[in-house]
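User: Okay, second chain of the day. Same drill as before: sequence in, C-alpha cells out.
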Amino acid sequence: MSGTDLAHRHAVGGLFRAHYPWLCARLRQYLGSGCEDIAAEAFVRLLEAPQPAAIREPRALLTTIARRLIYQLWRRRDLERQHLDQLLQVDQPSSPSPEELAQLTQALQGLDRTLARLPGKVRATFLLSRVDGLTYPQIAAELGISQRSVSVYMTRSEALCARHSANQSLNRPLQNKRSA
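Assistant: Same drill. C-alpha cells below.
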C-alpha cells in the first residue's frame, strides 16, 4: 500500500467520522429506516475512488454518491416489482404457486447479494448494461472509464452471474415424479 493510499484511507476515515451521522440523517428523509447501509456504501465508494483528490465539498460529494445509490436501490426494487407483476398477470392455470413466487423472490435476492459482492464500478457497469440497456460507449462515458474496462467488468460480472446460476441449479430440490 502506497503512502497516497494510506493518506486517502485516513482522509476518508476522517470524513466518515465527521459526516456519517449527518448523511444518515439526510438519507432518513428519503428512505426512513435502512439508510445506514446506503450511507456506509457511499463511504465505501469514496474509498474506492481511483484517483484520490482533495475533496473541497465533502457533503455535496457524499450526497451525490448516496443519491446515485438510492436510485440504484429504487431501480432494483422497481425491476423486482415489475417482474413479479408480470408473473401475476400470466394466465391462472400456468401462474406460479405462492411457493414458486417465494423461490423466485429468494433467487432474485440471492442474485442481488451476489452482485453486491462486486466492486462498485463493476456492479454499476453490469446494471447499466443489463438494467438500463446502455451500450459500452455510453457506460464508459457515464462512469468515466475506458470501453476496455467496461468489457473487462462485464466479463467479470457475467462470470459471477454464471457461477451464481450454476450454484442455484445445484441447490434446487429434485422434483417428485408424480408432481412433474
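Residues 1-95 form one domain.

User: Thanks, on to the next one.
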